[in-house]
Amino acid sequence: MVRILNNIKALILTNSRSYPRIITRRLNSSDATAKQIDVNKIRNFSIVAHVDHGKSTLADRLLEITGTIKPGVENAQVLDQLQVERERGITVKAVTASLNYTYNNETYLLNLIDTPGHVDFSNEVVRSITACQGVIMLVDANEGIQAQTVAVYSLAKKNNLLIIPTLNKVDLPRANPAKVKAQLQSLFNIKPESVMTISAKRGWGVKELLEAVITRIPPPSVDTKGDFRAHVIDTWHDKYRGVLCLVYIHSGTVQVGQAVKWKSDMKPLTVKFLAMLRPSEEPVEEAVAGQVVMVGCGPKAGGRVGDQLLAKEVGNDDEGTSVPPVKHMVYAGIFPADQSQHPQLNDAIKKLALNDSAVTVTPDSSPALGQGWRIGFLGLLHLEVFTQRLLQEYKAEAILTAPSVPYKVKVKGAKAIKQYKGDEVIVTNPLLLPDVKNIEEYYEPFVIGTIITPVEYIGAVTTLCHDRRGTPLPSNAVDDNMTMLQYILPLSEVVIDFHDTLKSITSGFASFDYQDYGFHPSALVRMDILINGMLVDELSTIVHTSRLEWNARRLTEKLKEQIPRQMVQVAIQAVVGGKVLARETLKAYRKDVTAKLYGGDVTRRKKLLKQQAEGKKKMRSIANIRIPRDTFIDVLKR
């Protein structure tokens, strides 16, 4: 037995000693490649487009042409690594892949970033283009220009990126490249001869597009001899290595073992992990300015999107590229299904929020639902994907409350009110709304909505926008059949079901995108729910005065359906400033107290009924109506 144990011990020691040597040889081989990289042979570019225009399919073809993956059905949607992305057929996370390609006997390093197309994940696009010098703007040759196409074009021009306009799906029978090229010229003044035509599914024209990336997009303008400086464009959590960061290097070089620091925290750190994503990790010993690489500084060395990673000797006043702050459009409460699951859900939310930097997490509590969190999202799809990832990746079940948008209020004499630091207060939860006596003015968030629709649906779209309190802006004709409409709309009217209604009334042909327009004065009030005269805090909402009666009737009717019947009558009221807007009455259970009578004088019956009436009157005066937790969940959930 002793001999067997000694043999096992010797085998473990041998394997533990040989493993680092294997890694070292791999690092050294990659190190030789990294040192030979010429900045003029680097191209950093993204693929941007409206949703479902073929970005992920084009990324697959580029990976095949460069020899990164083998052609085959099993390698479809390689960069869509999340389960939710494959199930929904959409891209949620921007993913980087570093590709090698030989053109005119010169080897080029191409850093490809496949970005999402839905407006709710536009933050991923904004972060990605900070590491790019050009973009491939993909347009479906069947559908033509869509609302998100206008948004990504404006974003690319704002960041002075070179745009390669490309028409995809030209192999389909309904494709009309000439018509779409005319749309590009009409809206963006893009010359038709500069537009590439491809079929990402069949691979037609993809090689020419890849060569156009090399010839058209300029190399990164970086300082290879300066001190190391990089900014973080993505982060994620590894079980064994801690926080890993994807960074774009602006100047200098970085090596494994080098001393670095975060700009937000001047504590010295050491680079322990360095790799290129191809898209799987390929460890390297050194990376140079212009590259997009993965950096890890150990389990306890964090990092966040937008922060800068600097050489140890660089001062804190050194400037660099930063990611603009995120403006959240929707807030919702997330609570564990059972309070015993609070630690598990807390850990899952922290790890997922690290990978999804567009969310903000603040602790929250509810008398009905217990301890939870108030989380800010970029939209309803973002909210749905976040909760789906919680369940799929961390096995964490959560209760989601009704989403609401942030409001702003101007407080009277805010300096005299200790809890408010300024004259204007952002309110993300109706419960935190100041007393109405202290509010001077309410402000509601608005957006500029861009709708591209066939001309035959203009009337229906206009009616919808007017019903949602929209204000029209000048419209543009995309071509003879399509029109681009713009409206200033309240965010609260957009985030819930506007997109679904728009698709319904236009038979799915219209597309919608929006951008922030700031806060503007609005007639808002807080609507409370009373149950037998008792205020229920969790059901309070902020409503526009024009929607008061409709919201009041809808909520009281739903509560009547959900609250179980009691031994006493239950009055459900929607109240604003003491005025009852809607009321529903839940009838009490009636016990037949005369069932035991089998005849005799009628006064016996009257006596029993009188006693029952007096008992119910007393019960009604002291009764505390307890609404079951399931009722709150059914009413509050989206």
Automatic annotation (TrEMBL):
Pfam family membership, one: GTP_EFTU
Matches recorded under PANTHER family: TRANSLATION FACTOR GUF1, MITOCHONDRIAL (PTHR43512:SF7), TRANSLATION FACTOR GUF1-RELATED (PTHR43512)
Bilayer topology term: Peripheral membrane protein
GO annotation, cellular component aspect: mitochondrial inner membrane; mitochondrial matrix
Localisation: Mitochondrion inner membrane
Predominant location category: mitochondrion
PROSITE patterns assigned to the protein according to its UniProt record, in alphabetical order: G_TR_2
Protein name: Translation factor GUF1 homolog, mitochondrial
Organism: Chrysodeixis includens
Physiological role: Promotes mitochondrial protein synthesis. May act as a fidelity factor of the translation reaction, by catalyzing a one-codon backward translocation of tRNAs on improperly translocated ribosomes. Binds to mitochondrial ribosomes in a GTP-dependent manner.
Class of the enzyme per the UniProt entry, highest EC level: hydrolase
GO MF annotation, one: GTPase activity
Domain Tr-type G: from-to ranges: 40-221
UniProt binding sites for GTP: 49-56, 114-118, 168-171
Catalytically driven reaction(s): GTP + H2O = GDP + phosphate + H(+)
Enzyme Commission code: 3.6.5.n1
Biological process, per Gene Ontology: positive regulation of translation; translation
Segments crossing the lipid bilayer: none
Taxonomic lineage of the native organism: Eukaryota, Metazoa, Ecdysozoa, Arthropoda, Hexapoda
Family: Belongs to the TRAFAC class translation factor GTPase superfamily. Classic translation factor GTPase family. LepA subfamily. Belongs to the GTP-binding elongation factor family. LepA subfamily.
Keywords, ordered alphabetically: GTP-binding, Hydrolase, Membrane, Mitochondrion, Mitochondrion inner membrane, Nucleotide-binding, Protein biosynthesis
